[in-house]
Structure formats: C-alpha cells, structure tokens
Design a protein that fits this description.
disordered N terminus, single chain, mainly beta, elongated, 2 helices, eight-stranded antiparallel beta barrel
C-alpha cells in the first residue's frame, strides 16, 4: 500500500506537468454495468463457523466515473463502484467503494481507441446486514487498479464506450476474542463492466 501511495504521488507531482499539453483536454463522465467477483481469503470459514454454506463469489455491479483528461496520455479519474452482495446462508456481505486514480493511456487510430491503465487509492464500505442482530459496517482503505479500452466513434460528438476491469485490494483485520491478536485477511473485489460516457 505504501509503495502505491509513493508511486501515485510522484506521478501526480512530476508526471502530469511534463506530459500535459493542449491536446485531448476535457472533463468526462460515464456509467457502466457488469459482473463482479469477490475473494474473501477464507474469512467466512474462519470467522463465521456457524455458517455452513459456501460464500457466493459473483454478483452484478455498477460503476460511475468522472474524470479530467489532461492530454491524450494522462487523466485523473474519480469513481464509485457498487460491487453487489455476497451470500452464505444468512450471512450477507454488501460492498461499495470510491476511488481516485491516475488514468494513463495512449490514443491512436485517429483518436478512436485508447487503451489505458488506472493506478490509485480507494475506500471500501463493507456492510454486514442481519435480520436478528444490528448491522455492522467496517470500512477500509484499498489499492485500486484497472485496465480498460475506450472507444470513441468518429461520427459521434463526445460520446464513447468503455470496456474495463477494475479491482480493489484491502486488508480486513479481525480481533481474536479475548486477545490483542488481530488476524488479517487480504480481500479483493473486482468488476468487469461495459460503460458509456460523454466528454465535454
């Protein structure tokens, strides 16, 4: 996590002014829908022994993204992701996240295609609703990464299509009953989505 923070900070401070130019600038925003996946690192089996079923690892999700394209290579992007819900018997894990990332890519074929990479930080909202006991909310910082392809048809004016995969990785620590020991689980959430956006 610290390594990603250092790289991201250096890129924002030094990389953007060097790469910035007058071409390709503009704000954009979009929305996408797709499939999500969750790796809980064995949390349910270890911490919820009364739950006998396996935790579901797939659901449907949604993504909202807003950004500013500095030039054809570099942009800054904010996102909100609803990863959906994951179940095991009466156990429910609902997750959403926000993120901020540097978007680095290259535009070619007369500006119609732009493969890119996202590197940034996220904030995870973990909710564990339950019918019989009060719901629990546990939030966490995450590292956010992504790969995608933006397509802007030549006959449109600002509209584009995106296919992307993005993921959040974070550490979920649980205090062991009656001790000062904290057991950590390296959990990962991912979404593969198709989005539509507009650049102003």
């Amino acid at each position: 996590m610290k390594f990603i923070v250092v790289i991201l900070t250096c890129f924002i401070v030094f990389g953007i002014p060097i790469l910035a130019d007058e071409e390709g600038r503009g704000f954009y925003g979009g929305i996408g829908f797709g499939s999500t996946a969750f790796e809980d690192d064995g949390f349910v089996k270890e911490e919820q022994p009364t739950v006998k079923g396996d935790l579901s690892v797939k659901d449907k999700g949604a993504k909202v993204y807003l950004g500013y394209q500095v030039n054809k290579i570099v942009g800054l992007e904010l996102g909100f992701t609803d990863y959906g819900s994951f179940y095991a018997e009466d156990y429910v894990h609902k997750t959403k996240s926000t993120d901020i990332a540097v978007n680095v890519g290259y535009t070619f074929l007369e500006g119609t295609l732009r493969p890119y990479m996202l590197v940034g930080l996220g904030y995870i909202f973990n909710d564990f609703p339950h019918n019989d006991v009060p719901s629990i909310s546990i939030n966490s910082l995450s590292s956010h990464i992504g790969l995608g392809l933006d397509y802007t048809p030549v006959f449109t004016s600002g509209f584009g299509i995106r296919v992307a995969f993005e993921a959040d990785g974070y550490t979920y620590g649980i205090e062991q009953g009656g001790t000062d020991t904290v057991k950590e689980y390296q959990q990962t959430l991912g979404i593969l989505y198709l989005g539509v956006h507009y650049k102003y």
